[in-house]
Structure to design on (184 residues):
């Protein structure tokens, strides 16, 4: 009996440590996504100024914007999942009692985790090949694609791990708090 309790405590501690590590990583990624958003605005602003003045202030604006945009979206992906900021349609689940709603949410988180683990599994070899070849986008400047591919693969893995933790119920307290807010 005592051994079972220790095993449960060690599992809970492990899940807590993984949760904290993922939270730190996704916050760092979200910070860099914010920097990427600033870079995207600067690139767009330079393009507008260049077109207005007739000076070419920034070559390859389209190529760089595409690469930066992919980076922004996927760097913030896990953070959006942790804070449950993704678009959700809850017309049906909102009507369910708390326990069945949690089951449906757990099933969705589990399926999402499986899907993102599979995508990550497929994305890593592509990203590693791209990195080895120093793949770049065709265009005026040859913007490097390989960092965005690597960020995509890592972000998919990080988000899959977050979904798995959410499916295991590590955010159950948050779900219950949200239900309390919904009831008000």
């Amino acid at each position: 009996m005592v051994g079972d309790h220790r095993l449960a405590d060690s599992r809970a501690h492990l899940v807590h440590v993984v949760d904290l590590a993922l939270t730190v990583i996704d916050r760092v990624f979200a910070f860099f996504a914010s920097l990427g958003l600033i870079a995207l605005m600067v690139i767009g602003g330079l393009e507008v100024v260049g077109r207005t003045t007739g000076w070419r202030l920034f070559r390859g604006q389209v190529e760089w914007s595409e690469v930066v945009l992919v980076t922004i979206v996927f760097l913030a992906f896990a953070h959006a999942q942790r804070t449950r900021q993704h678009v959700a349609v809850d017309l049906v689940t909102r009507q369910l009692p708390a326990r069945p709603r949690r089951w449906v949410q757990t099933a969705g988180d589990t399926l999402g985790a499986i899907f993102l683990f599979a995508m990550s599994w497929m994305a890593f070899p592509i990203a590693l090949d791209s990195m080895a070849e120093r793949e770049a986008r065709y265009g005026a400047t040859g913007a490097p694609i390989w960092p965005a591919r690597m960020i995509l693969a890592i972000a998919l893995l990080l988000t899959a791990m977050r979904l798995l933790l959410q499916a295991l119920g590590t955010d159950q307290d948050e779900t219950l708090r949200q239900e309390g807010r919904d009831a008000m």
